[in-house]
Amino acid sequence: MSLSSLPAAILSHMIAINNVPPPPLRSLPRLKMSKYIDYGQLNALCHIRGLQSSRSSYSILTAHNVFIKQYPKIFLQKTHRLSGLFKQEGKRPIYRTLHEHKIVWKMLKTIPDLTCQLPDEHLKTLSKSVISETWVKGSTVVGNDGFYIILKGSARLQTKAYGNLIEEDESAASLIPQSFQGFVVSEGIKNFLLAKVQTHDPTLGQWSTFGTLEVAAQTESETKEYSVITEEDCEILKISAKDYARLKSEKIKLENKQKVKLIRKCPYYEEWPTLSIYELVALIKWKKFPPGHVIVESGKIISFVAYINSGYCNIYRNIVGLTKLEPKKAKKIKKLVCMGKLKEKESFGEISVLLQVPFTCTIVTGKEIEMAIIEDKDLFGLDPVTKQLMLHTAKPTFGHLTDEDVKSEYLQREQKKDWKNFKDKTMKNSLYYNGIIPGFGKWNHYRTSIPRNLKDTLVSY
């Protein structure tokens, strides 16, 4: 019997004797095509001439460079689907519900040109006033009165001559994407724009942006600089520059109102005229400090005047105390004695800054604290009348404390500390003398609580 007929003989023998059915036929599993690969691009990539075999090293290198350049195209770019946006933004803002406003706000947060420039709270407010505009093919959309986002269609960007950001490369600064006009706020963003210019495409597609949020009187030439021409019917989302200006104005008014209220509640400024307080408000900056932060040390001049909005600060004075090392031996050491606190709606630093007088105490934050501060350079720029008024009403921080007060407070704290140590030691020795050790015992007492239905039946005498 040949080897090829051996398996067939064994199989027929098994069927004849044991009536074993033949194994079912199985097909190979189907290959599932990936959702993230463009197989057309992949096929073209695999058939690049000169990639598989070639006698010339130059053609191999050329084919390799083409392969590396075309390779990223086989991966499909994930598109951002803003489901529900077209339906919600088509309504006028006044007709949208709270849920629809929330949908528009979430969609605006997916647009990088907005999120990298505006805080989330501004986007939330602006989402309640955005409108949708429909433009037919060939229309000129002037973007000098707002910030525009293309939802459907495409448009051709009109170039804009932008100011030189880097003197060495004037040509690179001549074409800046319109989506960033009016938003450039830092050198980092300027450099980012110049990097984007090298590959800038004048055609704007879906989710592209253009326009500005800066409200300014613009000439006819400037109007053209913020314009695009639609190449097909477009649906464009508009954020009004006037709405953004009103938002900033309301925010500034609210912050100034909060600053005025804070200064008014400070004891030294209760009788100040309103005009003088507004002079201070224009110079104020908000600042936060973590717990345990040393704001100023004793013997140093503080660099700002502070108004505490939330939190508190501990006031410490230096004193020379004795520390026991060995029996009948002690060592002198400087210690900090807590003499009080600076609470909310209190200020400090006026006298130290204006008169350049060192602090007599150390100020340390007790917990996270938020303060409104005025830096010394800004304070020196005030008019003489306001500075004299501040010197007249303010007082040195805890300047009423004398060395005797500090010594008395230090002795009281040390006596309380010694008494507590003596009391704890005496109680421990008394319990241990009778064989009682706290935390140890013969029995474990499990006292269960009384059920609620039995509490009413208890009688107290």
3D structure, described in words:
The chain starts with 5 loop residues before the first helix and ends in a 6-residue tail after the last helix. The C terminus is likely disordered. It is flat and about 110 Å long. The protein has three domains: about 35 residues, no CATH class; about 160 residues, Jelly Rolls, CATH 2.60.120; about 140 residues, Jelly Rolls. Helix 5 crosses helix 7. The chain is about 35% helix and about 20% strand. The protein is built from 16 helices and 16 strands. The longest helix is centred in the last third of the chain and has 31 residues. The protein has a four-stranded antiparallel beta sheet with strand order 1-8-3-6. A four-stranded antiparallel beta sheet has the order 2-7-4-5. The protein is an alpha+beta fold and about 450 residues long.
> How much helical structure, as a percent, in the residues?
25-40%
The average pLDDT value, as a whole number, equals 77
Biggest sheet record = 4 strands, antiparallel
| Named CATH architecture of the largest domain | Sandwich
Please name the CATH topology of the largest domain: Jelly Rolls
Which homologous superfamily in CATH is the superfamily of the largest domain?
Jelly Rolls
Query: In CATH's first tier, which class of the largest domain applies?
Result: Mainly Beta
* Spatial extent as radius of gyration: 39 Å
Number of helices, where a helix is a run of at least 4 consecutive DSSP H or I residues: 16
Overall number of strands: 16
Tally of separate domains: 3
Largest beta sheet: strand ordering: 1-8-3-6
Protein name: (raccoon dog) hypothetical protein
InterPro entries: cNMP-bd_dom, cNMP-bd_dom_sf, RmlC-like_jellyroll
